[in-house]
Design brief:
Oligomer: heterodimer
Strand content of chain A: under 5%
Shape of chain A: elongated
Distance between the termini of chain B: 107 Å
Organism (chain A): Neolewinella aurantiaca
Helix content of chain A: 55-70%
CATH architecture of the largest domain in chain A: Orthogonal Bundle
Pfam families (chain A): Sigma70_r2 (PF04542), Sigma70_r4_2 (PF08281)
Keywords (chain A): Sigma factor, Transcription, Transcription regulation
CATH topology of the largest domain in chain A: Rna Polymerase Sigma Factor, Chain: A
Largest sheet of chain B: 3 strands, antiparallel
Order of helices and strands of chain B: HHHEHEEEEH
Radius of gyration of chain B: 43 Å
Structural class of chain B: alpha+beta
Number of helices of chain B: 5
CATH superfamily of the largest domain in chain A: RNA polymerase sigma factor, region 2, helix turn helix motif
Structural class of chain A: mainly alpha
CATH class of the largest domain in chain A: Mainly Alpha
Strand content of chain B: 5-15%
GO molecular function (chain A): DNA binding; sigma factor activity
Helix content of chain B: 40-55%
Number of strands of chain B: 5
Protein name (chain A): RNA polymerase sigma factor
Number of helices of chain A: 9
Largest sheet of chain A: none
Number of strands of chain A: 0
Radius of gyration of chain A: 19 Å
Strand order of the largest sheet of chain B: 1-3-4
Shape of chain B: rod-shaped
Mean pLDDT of chain A: 83
Mean pLDDT of chain B: 66
Distance between the termini of chain A: 55 Å
Low-confidence stretches of chain A: none
């Protein structure tokens, strides 16, 4: 079944078509949400909310039959709305102690696989991870992040720098443990 | 807009995560299916911002909202009207209770026919009920003598309970 036919069946409310559409796009879309939400079930709940919007507004979608970019935008917007509603970007759940900066070679970080990247990301507090994800994965500028999260541009810059520091530190800690002699 | 410059490892992370895929479980789809069944036909919720001023209510909406109050108010007004009318009738009835009343066209007729309770002349024929024209209404005491003048009026519809012609 072509994408156009699938979309057409989804618009008519065909549940089998909706399931096929959902299963087809889920693998690419969930990681977009998982960059922001550490808990998988929470990420799936956010994704489902976004997909509901998608199914409700598929009728208005009149593009070239390649809805991936449109879907990613809807998912991103929904995730941002949830972050804003819960004020997660500004909540600090635990005070951070002083962590001395560590030196980690860029090549070591660059060669991580997706699972390890997500683990490191999820070790960050929400208010840092969200800025890091918006900047690195979604390509937003500091001004755009500041606007979306209602923070200052300087705060966005500081949070990105702080997230980088902590990611290096977490990587260093995890690898020190793994490499330590038994 | 100027984009933020990223490090090499950050660029690599973006590529790695873009290739990353996550397979949906049966639970994932069942959650989505439940959402679709419960909310797909509902209208998209409007954004509710507590800082926005409320829109004025339309008059139709106000009427629909407050129609029980309006009905109650009308019933109340009707009740008060009926109560007042009943009170007036009772008041008039009580004033002649136990006594007869005498309608007279004037001093002459009163002198000529003192035993007659009613001395009247119908003047209006096109409405229901007895309508009488008279000059003065008197009370009769137990002995049948004229006691005192009650009303001096011109025309009235005389209700049977007020006639006292027993």
């Amino acid at each position: 079944m072509t994408t156009e036919l699938l979309i057409s069946a989804c618009i008519k409310g065909n549940h089998r078509a909706q399931e096929a559409f959902y299963r087809m796009h889920f693998p690419k879309l969930l990681p977009i949400v998982q960059r922001h939400f550490a808990d998988r079930s929470e990420a799936v709940a956010v994704l489902n909310q976004a997909m509901l919007r998608v199914f409700q507004s598929l009728r208005e979608y009149q593009e070239d039959g390649k809805p991936e970019a449109w879907l990613a935008t809807v998912i991103r917007r929904t995730a941002l709305n949830v972050i804003r509603d819960k004020d997660r970007a500004n909540r600090r759940f635990q005070p951070e102690g002083f962590v001395p900066p560590v030196s980690v070679p860029s090549s070591a970080l660059a060669n991580l696989n997706a699972e390890d990247i997500l683990k490191l990301l999820h070790a960050l507090p929400d208010y840092l991870r969200i800025v890091f994800s918006l900047s690195v994965f979604d390509g937003l500028s500091h001004a755009e992040i500041a606007h979306e999260l209602k923070i200052t541009v300087a705060a966005s810059r500081w949070r990105l720098a702080r997230a980088r520091e902590l990611l290096r530190t977490h990587y260093h800690v995890v690898n020190s443990i793994n490499e330590s002699p038994l | 807009m100027k984009s933020t410059k990223h490090t090499d490892w950050e660029n690599r992370w973006r590529e790695t995560l873009a290739e990353h895929q996550s397979i949906p479980t049966a639970e994932d789809w069942s959650g989505m299916k439940h959402l679709l069944e419960t909310q797909a036909n509902e209208p998209v919720e409007a954004i509710v911002d507590p800082n926005l001023p409320k829109l004025p209510e339309s008059s139709t909406r106000r009427i629909l909202k407050y129609w029980p109050h309006s009905l109650l108010f009308l019933f109340l007004l009707g009740g008060i009207g009926l109560g007042l009318r009943k009170y007036e009738v009772e008041k008039a009835t009580n004033e002649v209770k136990g006594e007869s009343i005498h309608f007279s066209k004037g001093a002459d007729s009163r002198a000529e026919n003192p035993s007659s309770n009613i001395d009247t002349t119908p003047v209006i024929n096109n409405i229901k009920g007895p309508v009488y024209r008279f000059d003065t209404v008197y009370q009769l005491d137990a002995a049948g003598n004229l006691s005192r003048e009650i009303y001096t009026i011109d025309t009235a519809i005389l209700y049977p309970e007020l006639r006292g012609d027993h």
